[in-house]
Structure formats: C-alpha cells, structure tokens
C-alpha cells in the first residue's frame, strides 16, 4: 500500500470498525489522554471533489493548499502526494513544504512580510511569489542587478474595493483590506510599471484573496472577472495564471442546518468567467485556487473524556480532560457538533448542561447550553469539524499539546506524539 505517512507507528488496526468505546479508550491510552483524530480518507475525498468539480469547468486548474489553516506534516504530505501545490505565507511554512518533499516550483509564496533573504531564496527555487508591497519590489530589483543572466517570473497581489449594497463584505466588519496593491489609488499600476522596468522580469499572474463574510458565488464571479480583466489590461503577453485565493465553503455537517454553495456551484461560477474571459485566447492561463477551511475543516475531530458531572446552583457542568483551547482557540461562542461514545448504553437522560475544560479559566467552555443526552463519567466526547485554524492556534497553555492519530484505510497511526516537558521547554532555546 502506497502511503503518505512515513515512519508510521501503527496504533491499532481498526479493520473498518467504527469508533466504539474500546477503540477510543485504547487510542486515548496510547496517546496519553485527549487526542486529535485526522481522517486521511476524508482529506483525499475533499481533494478529489474540489479538483474534479473545477477541472470539469476549466481544465487548466491547480489546487494550492493554504498551509496556515493546518500544517500538520502528515496532512500536508498527503495533499502533496495527491498533486496539490503548497501555498505558504512565511519562511517557516516555506521550509516545511520543502522538508516534506514539495517541488520548489510548486510552492506559492504569499503573505505581507518576506525578507530579502526569503525573496532571494524563493527566486532561486523558482517558486511562484506573489508580491504584496513595494518594499518587496526593491528586493527584486537588487536580485535582478546581482543576477543579470537570470529571468525572473512574478505574480502580484491585487487589492480592490469590495462592496455589496454600499457595505463592505470583508470579514469582521473591516471596510478596507490591507493586502496587495490597490487598484483604486493607482498602486497596482505603479507596481506593474516598476516591475516592467526590470528587463529580466516577467509578471506572469495576478492574485486576489479576500476573507469575506458571504463567501458568495456573486463575490467569486466578480473577483474572477476583475482579476481576468486587469490581467488582460496589464500583463496579457506574459500571463500564465489567475490565482483567485481561497475562501470557499467546504461541506458543512447536516447539524449546521445551512445551505451553502457546493464545490460544483463555485466551480461553475468561476469556470464560466474564465472560459468567457479567455474565449478564443490561444494561451489559456492556469486557474489557481488556494483552499484552506474547505479542504480540512471536516477532516479532524477531538476526543476527550468526561471526568465528572458537577452540579453548582442548579447548573450542570460536564468536566472533560480537553479544553476550548484545543477545539476553538479563537474562543468563538458557537457549539461544534459532538458525539458521545458512551461507556454504558443504559443512560439516555435528557438534560441541559455545559461542557468545560481542564484550564483554570472561567471561560473554558467547549460547549454552552447543550440540551441533549447527558454524558456520564468515563464517556468520551468527540468534537467534529476541528480541522481548520485549531491545531495551528492551539497555544501551549497550562498543558502540553495533545497527540494526533491519523486514520487511513482502516488503520490508525500516531502522527504526532503528545508534547513532553522537554518539547514544551526545548533546552536549545530556553535558558534554565
Ligand atoms: C488564509 C488564506 C487562504 C485560505 O483561506 P480559507 O478561507 O481558509 O480558504 C488562501 N490564500 C491566502 C493568501 C490566505 O491568506
């Protein structure tokens, strides 16, 4: 069996079985308590669904996975093995991609801060760099003058106003995005002019990523159109890619009770713009999508054990050996879906309760005001949808970070051990 996870430590052969009590208990035992579970089959499924949906609409299509969403090595490596490019926004992520065996030409280097050394290194590797600010153009100029025989290909990140009905659609209520070169104030035109003055430089693509509240089809249609039209206006002769960033919805669990666009819906909306804009063009650019949440949110869950049911002034607290910092480090107030893996099946008591964690913070609620079957001492709770922006934001707060088990084709492997004192306080970096 070809596998993406090297040096695998087989924890248990699940032999296709569901996660029953004995299995969860034995995994928790090998992990030293609460643990994350990564479903590599689900990840593969997501990759193929997104890829097929878009390829059907526009064949020259590439997925570049957004590392910051979840850069668990085994997860990124699996995506590389499926053919995904790596989208990175720091040198740390860049070096991780190389360490995982990614081809330097398949790394897309975004983000607002890139040092001179980073830019030199990425140009040497012939990665796709999307420039974000003018200071980076200075580094490119220096590189070009020091390496006069090298040709240099670059992308440029574009910033334009996003309004719907007179209101900005950016996330968290921001009016203006701070990333990329503004079209409205002439910065984009100036940046392109500056770059074109360097004889060795070819601007091969435009990039547009915005975090929006709506993630709507109308927004993606509009964004793709803008990028295509700007590309045709400024870089038609050298154009090789249109990179529309990330921000699409993934498949939501039924319990969310929400209808959102499917991968097919996004692909149809974006693909039809690409086909129209480049109808009759001899050289059709690549379409690049940088999915984060939509690729990984539903690939991970978190298992923790009920230590006690505590009653205080009529309020029920279910105390577990995990924390809100494990499953929603941004401390948002919505409850994630969870399952009870019960020790005994005889209790079906309906009750109102909160699920609270191991830290000594009052606000450590894994779930608020749950009305449902009351978990019992010894039961395991499995929180779902914890694949995106959880592991990467999980702080070293009060306790070590938990182990991660990967499940693939009926087997379970340890892909990250629980941290130890020596990992948490690495003596190479700390003075004692
Ligand atoms: C965060 C980010 C993504 C991924 O966004 P999602 O909303 O998780 O899909 C893609 N591209 C860039 C440049 C990003 O910063």
Automatic annotation (TrEMBL):
This is Diaminopimelate decarboxylase. Its cofactor is pyridoxal 5'-phosphate. The gene is lysA1. Residues 52-297 form the Orn/DAP/Arg decarboxylase 2 N-terminal domain. It comes from Robertmurraya siralis. Pfam families: Orn_Arg_deC_N (PF02784). GO terms for biological process: lysine biosynthetic process via diaminopimelate. InterPro entries: Ala_racemase/Decarboxylase_C, De-COase2_N, PLP-binding_barrel. Keywords: Pyridoxal phosphate. The keyword Cytoplasm does not apply. One of its GO terms (molecular function) is diaminopimelate decarboxylase activity.
């Amino acid at each position: 069996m070809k596998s993406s996870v090297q040096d695998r430590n087989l924890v248990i052969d699940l032999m296709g079985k569901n996660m029953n009590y004995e299995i969860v208990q034995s995994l928790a035992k090998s992990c030293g308590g609460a643990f994350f579970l990564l479903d590599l089959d689900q990840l593969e499924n997501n990759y193929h669904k997104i890829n097929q949906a878009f390829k059907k609409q526009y064949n020259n299509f590439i997925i570049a996975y957004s590392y910051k969403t979840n850069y668990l090595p085994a997860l990124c490596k699996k995506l590389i093995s499926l053919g995904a490019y790596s989208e990175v926004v720091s040198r740390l992520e860049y070096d991780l991609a190389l360490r995982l065996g990614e081809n330097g030409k398949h790394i897309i280097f975004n983000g607002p801060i890139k040092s001179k050394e980073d830019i030199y290194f990425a140009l040497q590797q012939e990665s796709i760099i999307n420039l974000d600010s003018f200071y980076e153009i200075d580094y490119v100029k220096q590189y070009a003058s020091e390496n006069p025989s090298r040709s240099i290909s670059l992308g440029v990140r574009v910033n334009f106003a996003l309004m719907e009905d007179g209101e900005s659609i950016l996330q968290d209520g921001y009016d203006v995005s701070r990333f990329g070169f503004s079209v409205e104030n002439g910065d984009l035109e100036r940046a392109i002019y500056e770059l074109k003055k360097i004889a060795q430089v070819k601007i091969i693509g435009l990039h547009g990523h915005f975090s929006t509240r709506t993630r709507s089809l109308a927004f993606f249609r509009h964004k793709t159109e803008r990028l295509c039209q700007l590309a045709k206006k400024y870089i038609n002769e050298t154009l090789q890619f249109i990179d529309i960033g990330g921000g699409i919805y993934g498949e939501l669990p039924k319990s969310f009770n929400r209808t959102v666009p499917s991968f097919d819906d996004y692909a149809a909306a974006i693909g039809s713009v690409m086909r129209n804009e480049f109808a009759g063009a001899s050289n059709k650019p690549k379409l690049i999508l940088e999915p984060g949440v939509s690729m990984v949110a539903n690939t991970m869950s978190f298992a923790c054990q009920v230590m006690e049911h505590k009653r205080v002034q009529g309020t029920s607290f279910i105390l577990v050996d995990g924390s809100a910092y494990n499953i929603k480090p941004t401390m948002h107030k919505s409850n994630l879906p969870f399952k009870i893996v019960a020790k005994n099946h005889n209790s079906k008591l309906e009750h109102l309760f909160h699920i609270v964690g191991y830290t000594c913070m009052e606000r450590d609620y894994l779930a608020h005001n749950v009305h449902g079957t009351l978990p019992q001492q010894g039961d395991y709770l499995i929180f779902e949808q914890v694949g995106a922006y959880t592991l990467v934001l999980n702080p070293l707060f009060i306790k070590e970070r938990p182990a991660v088990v990967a499940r693939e084709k009926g087997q379970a492997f340890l892909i990250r051990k629980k941290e130890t004192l020596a990992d948490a306080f690495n003596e190479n970096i700390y003075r004692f």
